[in-house]
């Protein structure tokens, strides 16, 4: 089938940040090259980018496409321990939510660059494609529903020399996923020195205690190479920004025992034994060739809250008619227990004589109120393992027709595994014999890449050599589903009596769900950069890619840059791109718990080719296609560096999870016949589909200025992003609320203003973050939506250098404890309604946990 074209942390004194004139824009962009050259310390920080070009690395001021560079030292001042949060504070067009009670999205959080989902941004490490996570964000907060991107949270900042963020479509250069842009994490490559750091902090509320120990060391690898090794170990306690649910409070007031004081918790999950090890090795084989190898091993355990199961109303456990009558099971096996089926539920069913006589005092009859009278709240968690290894060689060809050409041959293997656990729940169909903890199974993602790249300059009589690059790539990805323990999916003896099958909240994967799904593709590309004059540069990239599942595509990118004056140049690009559906998206099935019209229900995610999905509008997934363009200007005058770029990204046939569709009884009968578990308790189904088109446009503006101030040196940095997404076409299965979330959940306006100040023994860093209005949403429920107010947060850090090797810092993120938007929605009678125990809208772009303070000690050698 064819489809259409279209980086204990190397502690660097704050002097590095402050005297590096313009190296950081809101911690994100290298400033004027002239100012950088005037600052001696700048030689320690990269001022050039590898990403975005196939020719020699160049200064970002001379790049025809917008690139941000975040130095490793700047990441160290971010005050956070999560790479996602560090990047959010540095790149205004990068957004990430905390995702409480969001199934697997709580384990690997999806992020957004320029308003597009996480799998629309290509992630590289040392210029090589990074494998995606095995987690699919089934509850991704609207924008990321169904996204399967790379897990960049495993990358420790101490391992990084810099992060390069290409804010431009680049599928013609790098292949699938590069619609929103490219993020290249460049590992440190020093052969000596290093640092160790200990950081401790907690939120102002007194929870979320976080400890991080990290280190980096550079070692010689013979006389001609380096081995740079980094590690990070972290633990983080859970947080809670919750109030008691009204229904749980009413149960407690009625005398129902064992009701938790906080039946449902909204907050960050607990993270234990989060270990990440990165290595980067290089060895000169000769004067013109080099061997390289880099990779990582990372693992963490995550455990977070889930929805409360009310002991009067939870379907498939306590009641199947919304809480009117109690669900009672007959344990005799031959239905001879004469168990009551019409026990009415009032404020406390435990006081009902029919319950006391017919269930509590009848050994043949059973209700879960005997076992769990106060209801129960499952905890959902997982063990996430991530590892990768890249081996290659690169160098210069010294003879023959290609003499002077540069080659790069490499192979990469990446693997991510998510093994799920659910605690404090039940398999209701097993009755009193049900265990309380389950392992529902696991997903894994295995990717293999082999690349051959070649580039050479040719003299065509232009201002400089024309660089011609080309290459081949072979890519294979395999998504695997492994079944869970038997108790997590088995249909127990109470199944036919209306009790739900499988571990409640996350039923296990049955053996019939298990499988291994593989796809292969190969690509060929050519990339030409021609300097027609000293002031005018143009580039053209073409890429052909063929997939064994759905066909081939050819994409292009055209770039240009023109120096109007010595201090001012204009730049622009136009390109087509694509994102192939992931193997997981095309084949995964899952049962999840979510809220529908304020009611907790189970819904099934089906493969798009499942007969029921097809009946409801599902079809085989096709690639997304994009057309994008950007144009802007770079202005350098003295110590001031300023860039502004407009972008426009049109994406057709976007892949996402459909709106959840209500099931008819006929649909349920068909699903049951097909072997889908617990069908009669399912209320909805969804599937992945190419169901809408969007146009995203925006402006990025960056300014940088350095000067001497207050007896020391100062750097001021300002970055602003305006981003707007419009759904230009949608189908009935997209849903109006989904459209609203795509268009309104993220703030249209983001800005950061930072001031870094350096004295002889002290340094200070302050960053002011502005978040414009956004759509506040809670529990993925349209009736909760509102326009939330704009807000400002402040981050600050002060460092004292005791010696040249030892420094101490104290800092805070959200220094003034700016609260997220409080919930204020009402029920149909106008009475305030917060039946889910939250305090804040979970779509808050700066999170719901409030201020966080920390101290750290750094030793550099």
Automatic annotation (TrEMBL):
Family membership, please give it. Answer: Belongs to the TonB-dependent receptor family.
User: Which terms are listed as keywords in the entry?
Assistant: Cell outer membrane, Membrane, Signal, TonB box, Transmembrane, Transmembrane beta strand, Transport
Cleavable signal peptide: 1-31
Where is this protein found? Answer: Cell outer membrane
User: What CDD domains does the record point to?
Assistant: ligand_gated_channel
Q: Which residues form the TonB-dependent receptor-like beta-barrel domain?
A: 375-815
Q: How does it sit in the membrane?
A: Multi-pass membrane protein
Question: Does the keyword Transport belong to this entry?
Answer: yes
> Superkingdom of the source?
Bacteria
One Pfam family this sequence matches: TonB_dep_Rec_b-barrel
Q: Which InterPro entries match?
A: Beta-barrel_TonB, Beta-barrel_TonB_sf, Plug_dom, Plug_dom_sf, TonB-dep_rcpt-like
Any idea where the TonB-dependent receptor plug domain is? 62-182
Task: Spell out the protein name for this chain.
Answer: Ligand-gated channel
* Organism expressing this protein natively: Pseudoalteromonas gelatinilytica
């Amino acid at each position: 089938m064819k489809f259409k074209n279209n980086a204990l942390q190397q502690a660097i004194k704050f002097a590095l940040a402050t005297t590096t004139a313009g190296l950081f824009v809101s911690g994100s962009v290298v400033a004027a090259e002239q100012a950088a050259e005037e600052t001696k310390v700048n030689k320690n920080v990269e001022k050039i980018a590898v990403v975005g070009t196939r020719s020699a690395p160049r200064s970002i001021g001379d790049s025809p496409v917008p690139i941000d560079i975040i130095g490793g030292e700047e990441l160290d001042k971010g005050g956070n321990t999560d790479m996602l949060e560090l990047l959010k504070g540095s790149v205004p067009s990068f957004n990430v939510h905390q995702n409480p009670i969001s199934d697997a999205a709580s384990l690997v959080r999806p992020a957004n660059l320029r308003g597009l989902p996480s799998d629309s941004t290509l992630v590289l490490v040392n210029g090589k494609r990074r494998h995606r996570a095995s987690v699919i964000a089934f509850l991704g907060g609207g924008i990321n529903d169904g996204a399967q991107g790379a897990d960049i949270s495993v990358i420790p900042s101490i391992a990084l020399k810099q992060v390069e963020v290409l804010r431009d479509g680049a599928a013609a250069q790098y292949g699938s996923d590069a619609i929103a842009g490219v993020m290249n994490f460049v590992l440190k490559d020093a052969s000596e020195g290093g640092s160790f750091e200990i950081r401790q902090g907690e939120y102002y509320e007194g929870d979320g205690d976080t400890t991080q120990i990290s280190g980096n060391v550079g070692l010689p690898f013979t006389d001609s190479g380096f081995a740079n090794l980094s590690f990070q170990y972290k633990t983080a306690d859970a947080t809670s920004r919750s109030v008691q649910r009204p229904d749980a409070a009413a149960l407690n007031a009625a005398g129902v025992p064992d009701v938790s004081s906080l039946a449902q918790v909204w907050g960050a999950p607990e993270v234990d034994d989060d270990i990440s090890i990165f290595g980067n090795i290089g060895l000169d084989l000769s004067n013109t060739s080099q061997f390289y190898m880099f990779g990582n091993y990372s693992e963490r355990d995550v455990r977070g809250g889930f929805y409360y199961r009310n002991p009067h109303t939870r379907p498939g456990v306590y009641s199947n008619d919304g809480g009117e009558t109690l669900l009672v099971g007959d344990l005799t096996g031959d239905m001879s227990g004469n168990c009551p089926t019409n026990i009415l539920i009032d404020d406390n069913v435990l006081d009902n004589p029919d319950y006391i006589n017919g269930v509590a005092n009848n050994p043949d009859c059973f209700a879960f109120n005997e076992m769990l009278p106060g209801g129960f709240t499952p905890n959902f968690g997982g063990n996430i393992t991530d590892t990768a290894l890249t081996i290659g060689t690169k160098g210069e060809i010294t003879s023959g027709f290609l003499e002077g050409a540069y080659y790069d041959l490499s192979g990469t293997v990446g693997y991510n595994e998510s093994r799920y656990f659910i605690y404090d729940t039940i398999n209701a169909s097993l009755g009193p014999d049900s265990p309380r903890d389950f392992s529902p199974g696991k997903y894994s993602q295995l990717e293999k890449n082999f690349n051959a790249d070649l580039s050479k300059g040719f003299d065509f009589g232009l201002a400089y050599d024309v660089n011609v690059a080309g290459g081949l790539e072979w890519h294979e990805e395999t998504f695997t589903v492994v079944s869970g323990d038997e108790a997590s999916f088995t249909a127990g003896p109470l199944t036919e009596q209306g009790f739900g099958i499988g571990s409640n909240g996350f039923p296990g994967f049955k053996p019939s769900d298990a499988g291994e799904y593989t796809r292969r593709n190969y690509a060929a590309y050519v990339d030409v950069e021609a300097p027609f004059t000293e002031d005018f540069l143009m580039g053209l990239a073409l890429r052909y890619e063929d997939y064994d599942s759905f066909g081939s595509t050819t994409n292009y990118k055209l770039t240009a840059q023109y120096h109007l004056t010595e201090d001012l140049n204009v730049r622009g690009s136009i390109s087509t791109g694509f994102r192939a559906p992931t193997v997981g998206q095309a084949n995964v099935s899952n049962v999840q718990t979510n809220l529908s019209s304020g009611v907790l229900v189970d819904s099934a995610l089906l493969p798009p080719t499942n007969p029921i999905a097809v009946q409801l509008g599902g079809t085989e997934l096709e690639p997304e296609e994009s057309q994008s363009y950007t144009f802007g200007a770079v202005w350098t005058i003295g110590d001031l560096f300023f860039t502004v770029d407009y972008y426009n990204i049109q994406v057709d046939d976007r892949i996402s999870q459909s709106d959840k569709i209500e099931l008819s009884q006929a649909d349920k009968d068909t699903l049951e016949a097909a072997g889908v578990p617990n069908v009669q308790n399912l209320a909805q189904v969804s599937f992945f589909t190419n169901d809408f088109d969007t146009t995203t446009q925006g402006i990025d503006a960056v300014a940088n200025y350095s000067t001497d101030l207050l007896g020391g040196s100062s750097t001021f940095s300002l970055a602003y992003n305006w981003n707007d997404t419009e759904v230009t076409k949608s189908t009935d299965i997209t849903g109006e609320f989904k459209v609203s979330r795509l268009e309104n959940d993220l703030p249209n306006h983001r800005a950061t203003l930072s001031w870094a100040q350096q004295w002889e023994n002290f340094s200070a860093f302050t960053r002011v973050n502005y978040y414009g209005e956004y759509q506040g949403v809670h529990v993925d429920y349209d009736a909760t939506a509102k326009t939330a107010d704009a807000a400002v947060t402040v981050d600050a850090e002060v460092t004292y250098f005791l010696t040249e090797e030892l420094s101490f810092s104290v800092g805070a993120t959200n220094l003034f404890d700016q609260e997220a938007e409080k919930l204020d929605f009402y029920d149909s009678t106008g009475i305030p309604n917060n039946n889910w125990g939250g305090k804040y809208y979970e779509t808050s772009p700066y999170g719901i946990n409030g201020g966080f303070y920390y101290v750290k000690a750094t030793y550099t050698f």
